[in-house]
């Protein structure tokens, strides 16, 4: 199990600017007394990812400052913050920056999660991470049979994902092309895959 934990790195995409939320960075939205970025990092760590890379973008300096003030990274030696200067181009660019940052770490897979999905916690992440077999693995959570996050991308797929990740599609195009290779893991009983995109979605935050 320890070897698996070391081989699967967590990759948190937290660069969104919250355009439909009045320009509030999603990473800084409060949930249960802490910013969403803290909840997402904790979930990845609880799922067994000893290394977590966090891609920042909108108001990155403010997010770093808040994380430092809250001690979010204290004791998290394997947690690295990576900035995406082109975050406004969409999630695809952040995914590319994140995967590129993991390339030299020795990780054989990335467990990719989104900062604006606080309803997806450690239990769903653990299920998907447990689907890892080797660098060829592709694993996706499903909710009532519909694919969602988190997604595990084996390192053998990273170049292909980065070549096709554009706009807000992330790995969607690549996964569609390799659908037959994806191991699906139902997580609807342990997680809720809502996004925090609009003012109406803020009702999910506590």
TrEMBL record:
<dbReference type="GO" id="GO:0016740">
    <property type="term" value="F:transferase activity"/>
</dbReference>
<feature type="domain" description="MobA-like NTP transferase">
    <location>
        <begin position="10"/>
        <end position="179"/>
    </location>
</feature>
<dbReference type="InterPro" id="IPR025877">
    <property type="entry name" value="MobA-like_NTP_Trfase"/>
</dbReference>
<keyword id="KW-0808">Transferase</keyword>
<dbReference type="InterPro" id="IPR029044">
    <property type="entry name" value="Nucleotide-diphossugar_trans"/>
</dbReference>
<dbReference type="Pfam" id="PF12804">
    <property type="entry name" value="NTP_transf_3"/>
</dbReference>
<protein>
    <submittedName>
        <fullName>NTP transferase domain-containing protein</fullName>
    </submittedName>
</protein>
């Amino acid at each position: 199990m320890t070897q698996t934990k070391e081989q699967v790195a967590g990759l948190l995409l937290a660069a969104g600017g919250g355009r439909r939320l009045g320009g509030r960075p999603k990473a800084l939205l409060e949930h249960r007394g802490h910013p969403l970025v803290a909840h997402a990092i904790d979930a990845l760590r609880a799922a067994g990812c000893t290394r977590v890379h966090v891609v920042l973008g909108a108001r990155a300096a403010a997010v770093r400052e808040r994380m430092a003030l809250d001690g979010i990274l204290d004791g998290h030696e394997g947690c690295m913050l990576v900035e995406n200067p082109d975050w406004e181009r969409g999630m695809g660019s952040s995914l590319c920056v994140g995967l590129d940052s993991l390339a030299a770490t020795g990780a054989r897979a990335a467990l990719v999660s989104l900062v604006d999905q606080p309803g997806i916690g450690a239990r769903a992440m653990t299920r998907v991470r447990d689907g890892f077999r080797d660098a060829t693995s592709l694993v996706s959570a499903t909710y009532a049979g519909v694919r969602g996050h988190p997604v595990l991308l084996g390192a053998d797929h990273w170049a292909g994902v980065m070549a096709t990740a554009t706009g807000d599609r992330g790995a969607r195009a690549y996964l569609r092309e390799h659908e037959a290779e994806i191991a699906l893991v139902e997580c609807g009983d342990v997680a809720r895959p809502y996004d925090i995109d609009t003012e109406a979605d803020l009702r999910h935050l506590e």
